Every structure is written in C-alpha cells, then in structure tokens.
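Chapter summary example.
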Amino acid sequence: MPGMGLTLDTPPCMNPGQATNFTWTYSGGVFSTDTCELKVYERDCTYYRLSLANPSSTCYSPCFTLASDVTAGAAGYSWAVPADVHTTCRDGLGDLGEFVAHMRCSCLDETGAAQWCVSSSADVCINGTDTSLALADPVEAGTTEYAPGQTVTFRWNTTGFASNDTCTLDIWETDTSYLASRLAIATPSSSYATRCYTVTAGTPNSGSFDWTLPSSVHRDCRDGVGNPGEFALRISCTCASELCLTTTRYDAHAFLMPASVTITEPNEASSFYVPGQTLHFQWFTSGLIDGADCDIDVYNNYCAGLPCSSEGQLCFPIVSGVPNTGCYGWGIPADVHNSCNDNRPGGTFDPAEFYVRVQCRDGMYHQDVVDRYAFDIAGGFIPIPTLTVLRPDSGDTWIPGNTFNITWSSEHIAANETCLLELWNENSNSKCHDIVDGITNTGSYSAWALPLRIYECRIPALDATRRCLASSVKLCIF
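The structure predicted for these 478 residues follows.
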C-alpha cells in the first residue's frame, strides 16, 4: 500500500546445518504488531519478482516456511538451515543451489480486515558442491566392443563426489533407434531398452569396476527389437554429503557385443594331422539363437593361376547347413595333397598349409559370423607323371625290315629315369617283341629295325617300370 515499506536484508552465505539470522526493516504504515510470513524458495529461473498475493510462481518452488506469525517489530528471525537443504529444496528445474527468501506482512484495511499489504525478497546463499559424472569406458561414441565371457573394466570420472559415495552399474539391451543418453535419467523408459543385469549396486566411487560379461549374454539380454548385440552401460552415483547440490547423477554409453564364432579345434596345441585321420572340427558361438546352422570348408591359401576367391583355393566344401552343435568330424582324404595344392605353373608345391573356415548364421536375425584357423597335414604333393607316345602315331604303317624312330613326351618324370619299349600283339594282348630296355628318358629312340617276321601288333611305348606308367598307340605292320 502507498507509504508502506519493508526491506528484507540479504543474509551472509550459510552452510547446511548452520543457524542464520534474517533481519528486516519496516517503515510507513507498517506497524510493529503487524503479522508477517517468512519463507524460503528455490529459484528456478532468472525471473526474480515474487508477487505479493501469491509468491509461488513458475520460477519458484516453495521449500521452507520459516515463520507464519512473526511480528514486523521483531526485526529478526533465527533459522537453522536443514542439513539436507539441497536435497529437500529441489524441483529439478533450473540452476541448483539458488534460493530466495520472501517476507510479506498483513495489515488492516479500512474495513478492519487483514490483508497482505507489503512484501520484500532477498537472495539467499547456501553453500554447496556441484557434482558431475561421466563414463570413460565404454567410450561415448558407442564404438567399444566387448565379447561374451570377457572380463572388462568399466571406468568413470566424477567431481563433487567422495570416494566413499556409492555407484550402481546396470547393463541394458537397446535397439538401433534408442539413444544411450536416454538412459541417463532417474527412471529410464523401457519401451526400447531392457535392463538385463545389475553389474553392481552400491559399489564405492573408485572410478572403475571389473566385471566378467556372462557367456550367455546374448541369450539373457534380448528384447526382440532392433539388432542384437547393441547394449548400454548405465551408471548412477549418489552423494552422501549435505553439501552436494545434486544428490544423484546419471550417465550411459552404448557399446557393442557382436555375435561371433570361434574355432577351438584345430588350435595352437593341435594343428598337425595326417592323411586318413579324422579331424574333429570344434567351435563355439555366441549371440546366435537356437536353430543356427553352419558351413565348414577347407581351403588352401595358394591359388595363383587357378580360379579362386579372396578366401584362397576352396579344396573341400565339407558340409553346408549343419546344426550348430560345435563339432563335426572330417576324414582327411588319403590324396588330400593332390586334391588341394596350389599347382602354380613353374612354381613350387606347398600343399601342407590349409585352413578351415567355419561360417554360422542366425536364422532369426540373419547374422553371419566367420572364423578361420590354419592347420598342417603331413606329406606333400606328389605330381602325377604322364607319358605320351608321339611316334608312331595311331594308324601309322610299319614295314618289316625298315628302321623307325620312336619318340615320346613325359611330365614329372626325370630325364635320368630309365624306360622299357616293347611291341605287343593287340589280339592276344600280350608282348610279341622286346624293343629296348634301360634307355634313359630322353624322349626318343632312333633307327630301330622292325624284324621281318612280325605281324599286326601295337607298340605300348615307355613302360616306366618304377612308376608303373605306360602309353600305347595302335599301328599296322605288313
């Protein structure tokens, strides 16, 4: 009302649990016996004015009623600041720790009715410590990858929290559209994220915690939404001190745990086998649901000059679509080295280096996971020797008493190997004449005189006794 005055003094900064004294002055038509009300509000925004009739507004939250019937003439009021003032006086809006004291007094109007007639406000400083919490591992970008069964170290950084304050860590399964940051609140929505594990509850705020991811994490932690293997770590830390402006802080970072397959046999201790042996391929998978199946193939890495994929030379497509049991037996062929070698023209033969490729797929999510492991098989490539008679040619005619040249070609037969040339009777399928024995593999035998008393025969040339190889052509002898 005109001519009335009330000024609430700004008190010095105070601590939670400390007693402080509010003072004021009044003037004009305010009488010492007028009744006054004194409250403390938490200020949520930059709006400062508190109305006379209704001090509570969108920018203020009433926290404490210090007095409701103090007289203006008292000129002072002592208040013991609650130890939990920063917890009690909080609505979650605006800057924390900013308070305002508001005093208003009532007086009698012309009709004798009491009404609020004057008010004053003053900033109130209550000391406190702001807090912060930030996960460091997994990283914020969400690119950190873990594996089922792996022991990992979760790390975080805090300010304002003491080392004996406590933290809780949870694992959530999320989908592609759910941001991990949405979990960094007091009550996360479970619409697109599912809490799977409480890693630890109430662990000291040491900044790190070691935890072994369950091997069954993909089976335990699945909500059926989005791609599997996308998870988030959520952390909340609680401050026990009354000085903390924010009692509990939250943070959450996404991480990946892709499905995988790992070959366990062959392995470092068992990777050498022999032809004819049964090799039991063994593997384990994670992140694949029941009903997954696998393909198993054996490759040779040397495929230069042959049609091959980037995988190498596919030698044995062992099995396709076998149930994901984790084991499959393969009998190594006796001629494994001849069936699977690099066969590079002019090159060496290095057939002992193989690798197995296991590829498994998840029927529900269509995930494909692959692993490879190298192994050796005893022995080596034995080139298959070949022998071809060049002259006489099939259908040639030889006349007894004349001389003829016999020529042949060979592959993978050394020049110092010896050869046997014989003349055979086609009808009886028996030898009818010895030509020569023990000549070196030069590819020719010259000026052989065909005996006079010889009838229709065939000449199987170059019977290399040591290699049991032969080649023949049919000719007529008159």
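To summarize the output: The longest strand covers residues 60-71.
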